Amino acid sequence: MSKIVVAVDGPSASGKSTVARAVAQALDYRYVDSGALYRTVTWYALQQDRATNDAGRLAEWVHRLSFSLSTTDPGVVRVQIDDRLPDLADLRGDAVVEAVSDVAAVPEVRRVVGDVLRDMTRLGPLVVEGRDIGTVVFPKTPLKFFVDADPEERARRRSIETGGDVARVKASLQRRDQKDSSRHSAPLRCAADAIRVDTTGMTVEQVVDRILGCVATKLTNGL
Ligand code: DC
User: Is the C-beta atom of 172 inside 6 A of ligand 1?
Assistant: First the structure.
């Protein structure tokens, strides 16, 4: 396989970002956070006062955007839209968090984002985290992982990260899980050929070692 992609899918706050970053660093591959790309599109829609629940208009609007890859940090691929790059704090803000599932449910938005992600393979081997990387964006990659953890654990981890109250964070995660899993276009699900890793009670190092071990075995066996 000429283009190596390690797909790391899973629900919000499953630990997949931390793990995917560490796997990319260990392999010296570039790290791509596809959720950040959906958040960037959402942030830009809000900046332009677009109604984020108007699927028809978003579908038409998203085709007019100009996406370019930012290489400020060589290990992490970030995306600018119309030469604008949001702060990471903007992407984590409440307005984006509440609107992103609606925006990510629009099939045209997913098509455009999928094309942007596939175009990144020209940069070299990638670790791409998301919800549909192994099922839709790179269905042919043999390096697929589905990272999960129980809902309590996920809410606890996210509230440590963002400082919010655990019950509130859990409710917000569940709302997004529900939307992400039940949407018509590319719902969150584990690919049939993905290796599922339940990270509840596991340390980051254990999860990373497990994934690196599987990747090494597959690469040694010629995928
Ligand atoms: O991983 P995250 O929480 O940053 O993702 C933000 C949103 O984007 C989340 O609601 C799901 C959506 N998403 C998606 O639909 N497909 C992806 N590949 C990545 C994220």
Answer: no
